[in-house]
Write a structure and sequence with these properties.
The protein is of the alpha/beta class. The protein folds into 2 domains: 128 residues, no CATH class; 169 residues, no CATH class. The protein is built from 12 helices and 7 strands. Strands 1-2-3-5-4 form a 5-stranded mixed sheet, with helices on one face. The structure holds zinc ion. Zinc ion (ZN) binds next to helix 4 and helix 5. Zinc ion binds next to helix 4 and helix 5.
Length: 338
């Protein structure tokens, strides 16, 4: 399963779903604990390790010792995710992060991830579940750890703007992994062509701020980001993209441990690209069920032939250069460069 699709939005800001598709019960008790008297950042810890990503110290706590998968594999998994996010943002978004790895007996795969801002003495805290039967291959193919780390790179939002937090993480995560060399462009465009239509507005939709279904929250938000990226690049002759806007927001202090109005973040992003794309697009999609012409976008970007298989690229398409720029690794600048 590429993305959480349990059809239910949990009352938790960055609860990013369950990968144990048929094993909700194995995770559910912990969620109840999280909403009860014991917050997840106070759950018992058996052992800890600290790794460094750029200037950031990431404290990794394990719920249990002496169980699979081996700790060194889990550390490498987290390091790779941190590397992808560092490449995308030019540096790791927050100076300290704590990750609680909850090991789940009898399960395989990565389970629900949730990221909070400013709890337990850390600017960012992520709790994530890992089945004890999880393999190296599972860890190599995981998207959720990167997704959670992308959440650290945007100011916390009111519930009505939750689509922006999840849409951004959904859109930026695979791009970050391509830029870090962990995925191919063919893979992520194939996935986007397959998955993006899940964000289309359905009957009764009232725009992104008013329609809090799973599809609109994750993939409707991702459509917003995709369209913003393309529009920024069109408006700047492909010199700037959404990535520049997002870096500027982080550079201005807009990380998960802050609470900003969405309009403030979007304005900072617009200033960084010298456009009004983010603000304009938000105004067009916030209260209106705007349908994004995905078929037309794929054609313009030169993405073809996705019927059940991998896409292929047509470099003669009018915006093929935009498609290439989106996944091109940026220079390793430490500032947003504007
Ligand atoms: Zn998420």
């Amino acid at each position: 399963m590429k993305r959480p699709n349990n059809g239910v939005l949990v009352d938790r800001r960055d609860f990013c779903g369950l990968l144990f598709a048929s094993t909700v019960a194995s995770v559910l008790p912990l969620r109840i604990v999280a909403q009860g008297r014991t917050p997840p950042w106070r759950l018992p810890v058996a052992s800890s390790r600290t790794i460094r990503a750029d200037d950031t110290l990431i404290q990794i706590d394990f719920s249990e010792d002496g169980v699979d998968p081996p700790k060194n594999l889990l550390l490498q998994w987290i390091e790779r995710a941190a590397q992808a996010v560092s490449v995308y943002y030019g540096q790791f978004p927050v100076l300290r992060e704590r990750i609680l790895v909850v090991l789940v007996p009898g399960r395989r795969g990565i389970g629900g991830g949730t990221t909070w801002g400013g709890v337990g003495g850390f600017p960012a805290f992520t709790r994530i579940h890992v089945g004890q039967q999880t393999t190296q291959q599972d860890l190599d193919g995981d998207w959720m750890m990167t997704h959670e780390m992308v959440h650290t790179a945007f100011p916390s939002q009111q519930d009505e703007h939750h689509w922006m937090e999840e849409g951004l993480a959904t859109y930026a995560e695979p791009i970050a992994r391509v830029q870090a060399g962990f995925l191919t462009p063919t893979k992520i465009w194939t996935d986007m062509v397959r998955d993006m239509p899940q964000g289309d507005p359905r009957s009764g939709d009232q725009g992104l701020d008013q329609t809090h279904t799973w599809g609109r929250t994750y993939w409707g938000g991702a459509q917003f980001c995709l369209l913003a990226d393309i529009n920024i690049r069109k408006a700047t002759q492909n010199r700037k993209g959404l990535q520049d806007a997002l870096r500027a927001i982080v550079y201005a202090g807009g990380t998960i441990d802050t609470q900003w109005p969405l309009t403030k973040a979007l304005q900072i992003g617009d200033t960084a690209t010298g456009t009004t794309v983010l603000t304009d697009l938000y105004n067009a999609m916030r209260d209106t069920p705007k349908t994004v012409d995905l078929t037309g976008l794929w054609k313009d970007l030169g993405i073809e032939g996705h019927e059940g298989g991998e896409v292929s690229f047509n470099d003669a398409a009018p915006f093929a250069s935009i498609r290439k720029a989106i996944t091109q690794a940026p220079e390793a600048a430490k500032s947003p460069g504007y």
